[in-house]
Amino acid sequence: MKMHKMTFSILFCVLSLFWLGFYGWNFYVFNRTNQELSRIAEIKKEVDNLPFYDRYIKNLMLEYENIQKQSFSGKSTSEFIAKLPKIAEFSGITGLVIENAGVKSENDLEVTELHITCHSQFPDVANFIDVLERSKMPIHVQSLVMKNGEGNLTTAMVLKVYKKTVGD
Fold first, then answer.
1. Distance CA 13, CA 143 (A)
2. Which DSSP helix (H) or strand (E) runs through 9?
3. CA-to-CA distance for 54 and 57, rounded, in angstroms?
4. So what's the pLDDT on residue 101?
């Protein structure tokens, strides 16, 4: 009888270990499957956004092509610089001083750097910058420093005017 109980106990332990191993393995596979399904759901969200990304890329490409088509001659850049005092006057800016810091080359572009100082009120400077941004010239306001004193705002700004380099 003792042998019978011992055999039964060993058989019970073996079956319990087998059961534990079998269901442990199934639990591991279940967790891995859930992780993979979660990853697939995240990827599906990105795939669902693909038409949006495609439209966004097409719009960026169109903007890039439009900018690339803009090729300004040296004359148009100099004409623009010559018009800056008139633009400033219409904006209400007084005491405009423009210094040309020269032309540099950056990434196949000619960059004319202008140092501008002026005296006015804040809305006048805002209007001047707004007119510059609305111009057809590719302009970048690199820096802008404003100091208030004696009822006037003294503004110092550095503008960069870009022009595509035309090869010979």
1. 79
2. helix 2-48
3. 5
4. 87
When pLDDT is cut at 50, 70 and 90, the band that residue 22 belongs to is: very high
**Measured between alpha carbons, how far is 64 from 58 in angstroms, rounded to an integer?**
10
Evaluate whether 107 touches 123 at the Cβ level (below 8 Å). Answer: no
Contacts for 129-133: CB closer than 8 Å, 24+ residues apart: 131/87, 131/90, 131/91, 132/87, 132/159
Backbone angles phi, psi at 136, to 5 degrees: -80, -5
The predicted-structure confidence for 71-107, as pLDDT tens digits, reads as follows: 555 557 788 888 889 988 888 888 889 998 888 888 7
Q: Looking at the chain, how many residues does it have?
A: 168
User: Please, what is the average pLDDT of the chain?
Assistant: 84
Among 139, 89, 145, smallest CA distance to 114 is for 139
